[in-house]
Amino acid sequence: MAPTNGLVSRKSAHDAAETTRRFRAAAEQAGLTLFAEIDHGRNAAEAGLELGPCIVMLFGNPKAGTLLMQLNLEAGIDLPFKALAWTDANGDTWLGWNDPQWVAERHGLGPEAQATVAAIAAGMDRLSAAATL
Fold this sequence. Notes:
Blueprint: E1 7-12, H1 16-29, E2 33-39, H2 40-46, E3 54-60, H3 62-71, E4 81-87, E5 93-98, H4 100-106, H5 114-132
Antiparallel strand pairs: 1-5, 2-3, 3-4, 4-5
């Protein structure tokens, strides 16, 4: 699960729809707000194009996100946090998200953001495990 270019990904034992369902349930159980879900695969099919399963979920905790944006409003471009469930060309399903530390560094949030960033990273570890294992 080492980040690559700020993206952390975890292989899922489930298909993209089930990974998404499990992530959504874990996020709701954790008290997070689910702001939106975008099914890129369905949207592509409706446009007459082919794209494998690819679903984005926008979610978060407004208190945590606000704390980060109070340090730098530009962090809002990366908030709320997103998770992407997709199936690759080999048929493997993945769950990916932006590394919270990468987001903090990208926006120069500094040491005062570290407790929030660490909490978000720990939360993503729990949510991704619930969705993929």
